[in-house]
Structure formats: C-alpha cells, structure tokens
Design goal:
Layout: H1 3-16, H2 20-41, H3 46-64, H4 68-88, H5 90-102, H6 115-134, E1 139-143, H7 150-153, E2 157-162, H8 165-171, E3 182-186, E4 189-195, H9 211-222, E5 226-230, E6 237-241, E7 244-246, H10 251-262, H11 270-284
Parallel strand pairs: 1-3
Antiparallel strand pairs: 1-5, 2-4, 3-4, 5-6, 6-7
Helix pairs in contact: 3-4, 6-8, 6-10
C-alpha cells in the first residue's frame, strides 16, 4: 500500500470516530470563546488579556527552545498570574455572571445608529451643549465608541434613557445629585450618569482647566472615547480625544467633531457569519 492511498484511508478512519456530540461540543466551545472575547472587547480589560496572551506565548517558546532559566521565571509569573486573574478581571467576571443570570450571554442589543438617528442625537447634544454654555453650567459627557466603558458606567447611576437636550439639562442642573459626575453616552441613549472618571497625570496643563477638563483628558488617554466638556467658569465648550483637548468650539464645529462617533461601522456578531453565508449561497444558485 502506497503512502498516497494510506493517507485518505487514515482520514476516513479519523472522521469515523467523530460523533455528532463532538461536533456540537466544538461548536458550543467556539461560541463561548467568541462571546467571551466580544465581552472583553467591550472593556478596557482587552489590553490586559492581550498582555497575558503574550506571556503565554513567550513561555511556550522558552520551553520549545529549552531556555531553562527563562522558562522557570515565566512559570513562576504564570503561577502568580492565575492567582491575580480573579482580582484583575473582577468587574468582567461579575458582569458575565450577571448576563448569564439575565439570559443575555448569547443575545445582546445592537447600538449602531443609522445616519438619521445619528443626526438626531448630534442635534440634541449640540442643543444641550449650547444651552449649558449660555448658562455656564458645567457638564461632562463621554461618548462611547469601539472600546466599551462598562467599568466606568458601573461607578454611576444607570439611566438607559433616550438622549434629549432637556434630559441632559436636567442631569447637569446645578446642585442635583448627578451634576458633578460624567454621563456615559452609548448609541442614542444616556446609559448612565454621575460616573467617576480618572484624572490625567499630565503636567503643564493650563491653570484654567479644572477637574472636569482633567477628568475628560484622563479618560480619553485610557480609551478611544470622545469627551464633551462644558466649563462651569467660562461656559467654554471643549472636546477631549486621545489625551488632547480642543477648546472654544461653536455649534457647527462641535457637531462636525462628534457626528463620526455615532455613525459606527457595522459590528460583527456571531449570527452575521451565517447570514452572510446564506446570502452568498442564494446569490450563487
């Protein structure tokens, strides 16, 4: 028997050992891994997860190359890492258990907006910003983009309310409980308000910048969010992005800067792969 005939027979023999239950198990594991990744992708913990993956890969190659000293060091690091994982990912573990209890682990709402919805949200936010600026009412709004801010929103009060200029005005009305915190904007809704943000550690910032501006710069340094700030002292409207602050914006400039944050590219979901496959299959028949 030649090698060419032996190889197909070996594949057939291997395939005959696969049970329907094995296929189902592989599919379920793939879905669970995908959902866990999607949930991590929605938080700042994804950076930590990538770092842990790098440590695993380095440890693997050290073992393959028989670098005994480095292998021993990384083994000790990985041992301590397993102890620290529940602490590092405590917010994500808690949210995962909550989603399991609510039956939302495999199904989630989509927050992408079409152009008409995005324009409406931008119009309401610009209207609110101009009104707050006119009365010198301080405000801080964090517009969530691709990187989720669930860990930040958990520090405030969940609202999950449609965005309107009137609601924004009520949230930041002076001496109300939510006035001093930040509002998290997700899609066309104010997801939470009264949230705490990290302050930037940058030195040499203008003395005109108060706590709101430093918080806006701080959160924009840690994620890809767009942060809208209205100064309580001067009424100046500003935008923080990637650790940089753009100040003294008018209504048109503000609208142009925040509109792209609401027109999201289509986010891939596990079911979209099957939908795309079915459409392709119909088109070729």
């Amino acid at each position: 028997m030649t090698a060419n005939t032996f190889f197909p027979e070996k594949l057939v023999g291997l395939a005959s050992t696969i049970r329907p239950a094995d296929i189902l198990e592989i599919l379920l594991v793939a879905i669970i891994i995908y959902k866990l990744y999607a949930m991590l992708e929605g938080t700042r913990a994804i950076t930590l997860a990538k770092g842990i993956l790098v440590l695993f890969l380095v440890n693997f190659f050290c073992n393959v190359l028989q670098l005994n000293l480095l292998s021993w060091i990384f083994e000790k690091i990985m041992t301590w890492m397993f102890v620290l994982l529940p602490i590092i990912f405590q917010p994500e573990l808690r949210r995962t258990l909550e989603r399991l209890g609510q039956g939302k682990f495999f199904f989630e709402e989509r927050t992408s907006l079409d152009e008409a919805e995005a324009n409406k949200v931008v119009e309401e936010m610009v209207k609110a910003a101009k009104s707050l600026s006119a009365t010198k009412t301080g405000a801080l709004m964090v517009i969530e983009r691709t990187m989720g801010l669930n860990d930040v929103s958990d520090t405030g009060i969940k609202l999950d309310a449609m965005i309107t200029a009137e609601l924004i005005g009520n949230i930041f009305f002076v001496n109300t409980p939510l006035h001093d915190g930040a509002a998290i904007i997700r899609g066309n809704r104010i997801y939470s308000a009264g949230c705490l943000l990290p302050l930037t550690e940058k030195r040499g910032l203008s003395k005109e910048l108060g706590t709101r501006h430093r918080a806006a710069i701080g959160i924009s340094e840690q994620c890809d969010a767009l942060v809208l700030v209205v100064s309580e002292e001067t009424g100046t409207i500003s935008i923080a992005e990637n650790g940089k602050l753009t100040r003294r914006l008018d209504g048109d400039t503000l609208a142009a800067m925040i509109r792209p944050a609401f027109v999201h590219p289509h986010k891939k979901y596990f079911g979209d792969f099957f939908t795309k496959w079915r459409k392709h299959d119909v088109g070729t028949n």
